[in-house]
Amino acid sequence: MTEMSTVDGKTVRVALLGCGTVGTEVARLLTEHADELAARAGAPVELAGIAVRRPDKHPELPQHLLTNDAAALVESDVDVVVELIGGIDPVREWLLTALRKGKSVVTANKALLAEYSAELFEAADSSGADLYFEAAVAGAIPLLRPLRESLAGDRITKVMGIVNGTTNFILSAMDSTGAGYAETLDEASRLGYAEADPTADVDGYDAASKAAILASLAFHTRVTASDVHREGISNVSASDIAAAKALGRTVKLLSICERVEGEDGTESVSARVHPVMIPRSHPLANVGGAFNAVFVEADAAGSLMFYGQGAGGAPTASAVLGDLVAVARNRVVGGRGPRESAHAQLPVRPMGQTPTRYHVSLDVADKPGVLAQVAQVFAAHEVSIAAVRQRDRHDTASLVIVTHLAPDAALEATVEAIGKMDVVNEVVSVMRVEGEDS
Ligand code: NDP
Ligand code: HSE
Description:
Catalyzes the conversion of L-aspartate-beta-semialdehyde (L-Asa) to L-homoserine (L-Hse), the third step in the biosynthesis of threonine and methionine from aspartate. By secondary structure, the protein is α/β, with parallel strands linked by helices. The chain has 14 helices and 18 strands. It folds into 3 domains: 147 residues, Rossmann fold (3-Layer(aba) Sandwich), CATH 3.40.50; 166 residues, Dihydrodipicolinate Reductase, domain 2; 80 residues, ACT domain (Alpha-Beta Plaits, 2-Layer Sandwich). Helices cover 35% and strands 26% of the residues. The strands form 3 sheets. Strands 7, 8, 9, 10, 11, 12, 14, 15, 16 and 18 form a 10-stranded mixed β-sheet that branches.
């Protein structure tokens, strides 16, 4: 008996919107593995149409399937819409139309989901359609399904990791070869990792959208991109990287989503994206190139780590096809995948009140009492110092201070006050720290 003998359902007709870096790979795999996918879905999965912006630029695709009218393709006789165009408008309307008409949607569009997932889920609920989006966060890595399903019975406390391949590619190159920022970004774009507008990557918008999606799923709370504190890597300098290296650390752009308990015991959610200094011994320090890695901490499960290719055509297509098989199978058997889970609706904690730790590197006058004066400024802001390292130069000294956890606003105010001190020649580098004992 062959696998094919399990194919008994009606053909599932698929509209593919967008056939660029990811869509091309989805179309290829859908065609090359048609028999296996049919066996797994329980029905043939057929590509019914492909919408692109410029059909004449795609001689490689089956011409009879091509259109530049995505809206008409969505309205046509298709069961599933796979959206790989990106951005919010006009895609949002097309997907809402599809879902309201009972057509399941598979998308990799984190920008859209981070703003409009509530509206999309509502449209899906109105018709009983599925909304799947595994590829929207961390490329090939199965991460959203574990959060939505496998860990649905646990209580997640933290999700932290590298979720943007482009910036990780750039930071890894700056750290290992000293390569320049611009040339590395060009290379990331050439390899298909970067967004259509790469400032979405380098300024942290892409990672912030992903953090919003992760926090929403992990904490059963609606978190949008505007709730996420965002800093990109454009201000990370060669001297930051060198300062980190000299201390046995490296710099990564992390998305950090936490369940934070206040002094009165009330819970809130913190979601932030910013560069972080981590020890080279930390598992995230060894995640290089466009790879992603995410730690999940949950009460019963403990720590889990997810690792793999976070960007690129084929890896992302793998996640898209996994979703496509799932929604096709749901149609064949008459079931539905998970809906939105936002019952907790925890408040989002402002960044200033979020506990963080700072690494501060200063160039100071080398004379008696300077260290005490600097320490006094930390104390005045109720920031406790965890470690101090001083290295003398000629008539100045390099002072590196790592703090304990303190509200981010207190740390920021401390650095500002230190920058104004007469004995401080320069604040050389300021960066948040993760992965060390607090
Ligand atoms: P590309 O820019 O490579 O491809 C976009 C596609 O959309 C192109 O085929 C383009 O047509 C088509 N398109 C654009 N506007 C329209 C329109 N108005 N009507 C019809 N088609 C249109 O994007 P990617 O493949 O890189 O990304 C697609 C999505 O996947 C995005 O949401 C992205 O964030 C997400 N993603 C991307 C990853 C990656 O590594 N690249 C990883 C994870 C998610 P034409 O070819 O004619 O220009
Ligand atoms: N531009 C994104 C990245 C693609 O670099 O991670 C994957 O979502």
